[in-house]
Amino acid sequence: MTEVLTQLFIGGAWTDAADGATMPVDDPATGEILCHVADAGPKDARLAEEAAVQAQQDWARTAPRARSEILRRAHELILERTDELAHLMTSEMGKPLAEARGEVAYAAEFFRWFSEEAVRIDGGCGTLPDGRNRMLLTRRPVGPCLLVTPWNFPLAMGTRKIGPAIAAGCTMILKPAPQTPLSSLALAGILKEAGLPDGVLNVVTTSRAGEVCEPLLRGGRIRKLSFTGSTGVGRLLLAQCADAVVRTSMELGGNAPFIVFDDADLDVAVDAAMVAKMRNMGEACTAANRFFVHRAVAEEFGRRLAERMGALVVGPGTRDGVDVGPLIDRTGRGKVEELVADAVERGAQVLVGGRTPEGPGCFYPPTVLTDVSPESRLMGTEIFGPVAAILTFDDEDEVLRRANDTPWGLVGYVFTQGLDRGLRVSEGLEVGMVGLNTGLVSNPAAPFGGVKQSGLGREGGRVGIDEFLEYQYVAVPVR
């Protein structure tokens, strides 16, 4: 494994924080400190902003093909270093190596996808209806961007934002989560090697997010914020963007319903539940949160799911044969413990799991609860852990009403062998994405995002680059 990068990346150079501050990066499997990285402050943010602003004009003029080729080279470099990047990711956030390798491939694909979109930015030309003017419509980069990424998919969430920004011709400042800065710094090194000009990407790792981000958003030179994280933080950032009318895209929280009808193929439904619930130890905004299972099949579904969940091996992500790594930190595990305890107090039955193991690390066992009260706290919040809470329902109208009874609307899952019912329920769900008889919806070629308080805008797909582009209309008189 090559040297771990621990400094800020500003203007194409690696540098310590201006005040010399550092912050620890912990291994959630052991609680031990892996290393210390630079802890940026306001002065570092200003330097990164200046670098991005100074690079913007030249980068916007760079040929689309040149931007495309940089992304394609970076895609290839990421894949060449799959094992190295997977080990780095597992060390800082805990997911098993097999999942980490999958994320590396997923992350690389965003660069390939947007390398292809970079050369397809188009406009239009035509005569306006009154015949007096021709309309010339062009698209231009929105300008310097602030990209804020979460800890749960530290590499893929970076490439999902950086890819379209590069393709569109935007410069950027990336602020990764303080728990997982190493993957982002490694990505910056790869992009530099791939030929990205100095100042186009700047990475500021920090534990002082408010001191770093707020001045950037209120200052007026940053023209775009792309944020993935909690709805609460998203609201705060939206308020900070208001002064300078900063363009925003937000991928916020979720409370995904997983609906199993009485005609569902239970083998398919249980397989999908394992993906939708246990991907990344349940620490995903797309994770199935509320399992609504028809009363006629609820007992059998719960039995099968508990059997599968109970067979999973829990341990450090670097150990062979491990299926479930640790949660990100003790705060995250404590939240899961409290939610399960509350559900049990309200009458839920524990089919498997439910008890925190002794020893080091932030582990929590895969857990299945049945007879869950709708009043339980875990019904109204993201669990962000390996806990499946099963409720029963009797008819389609009832389950749609209950599934939509939430301020969030990111994703939903529907299982039925009836095509008409599947499409009808999918259309009735107030969500941005639906998995119909599948537990995995994320794909770089598909638009990712939600409705209601789950966010604004879309990432990925053909529309993903639109978030980083503005239209300009030029009227040309007809002579």
From TrEMBL:
Record's keyword annotation contains Metal-binding: no
Any one GO molecular function term: succinate-semialdehyde dehydrogenase (NAD+) activity
UniProt xrefs under InterPro entries: Ald_DH/histidinol_DH, Ald_DH_C, Ald_DH_CS_GLU, Ald_DH_N, Aldehyde_DH_dom, Aldehyde_DH_Superfamily
Pfam families: Aldedh (PF00171)
Coiled-coil segments: none
UniProt KW keywords: Oxidoreductase
Aldehyde dehydrogenase domain mapped to chain residues: 14-474
Family named by the database record: Belongs to the aldehyde dehydrogenase family.
Record-given protein name: NAD-dependent succinate-semialdehyde dehydrogenase
